[in-house]
Specification:
3-stranded antiparallel sheet; UDP-N-acetylmuramoyl-L-alanine:D-glutamate ligase; about 20% strand; 6-stranded mixed sheet; alpha/beta; 9 strands; about 270 residues
Length: about 270
Amino acid sequence: MKPKSKVLIIAGSDSSGGAGVQADIKTVTSLGSYAMTAITAVTSQNTTGVISISSIPSREISKQIEFTSKDIKPDAIKIGMLHSENVINSVLKSLNKIKVKKIILDPVMTAKGGAKLINDKTIKILKSKLIKKVSLITPNIPEAEILTKTKIKNVEDMIYAANVLLKMGAKNVLIKGGHLNIKRMKDIFLNKNEILIFSNKKIHTKNTHGTGCTLSSAIATYYSCGKTLKKSCEIAIKYVNHAIGTGPKYGKGNGPINHLNTINIKKKFRWEM
């Protein structure tokens, strides 16, 4: 099968494979597209937490973005962990050079175990510059609270926070409601023209490591294939929910989800017959 589109992933590496660029590559590939990468940091982590973060020099990050895109032009870009002001400024300069219009930003700020992955100066640049550059920003509730300096306890608070992000310059906002203590999952998609609430069955499990990375990569993939941003969000959420429900239950902590849930691995390939 020929890949449907090309997606450039700008994100950190997760040694456990559940989140970061590893989750992104699995997602893009399982949805039938071609994944390229620019690694921003290398983390040492597993399902129980993060023990170290090693930064990739900002010059090398820019080289990865620009040299890769010069040869294979991405149809869309997914951005994940940008942990320092030098990194985020370098990425902004590179984005201005390669001129890709479809950009999804997952504002990674903390790991599933609570470890902080981004500093305050970087958050300030994200809010003042990067948020205006991207097509969609996809914070979870803790991230939205940090960005908007508000408390989110219900759907109404999510809508309010999304509007704050619009006022900062965001074109489209998807706030993920997984942290709310409610019976059904509520994710809020909002722009200047409409508000949509995606409601889905809530799956009770601790194994949700990498869901944010996976969702933003899935959105970028569907968007790169020509679907509208709204439709991309809708079907990406369904993909992630199925990945959570079929998770492999690996690890002693917050385990990964099943990125391969779109693939029938029991089927024999032509070369195996």
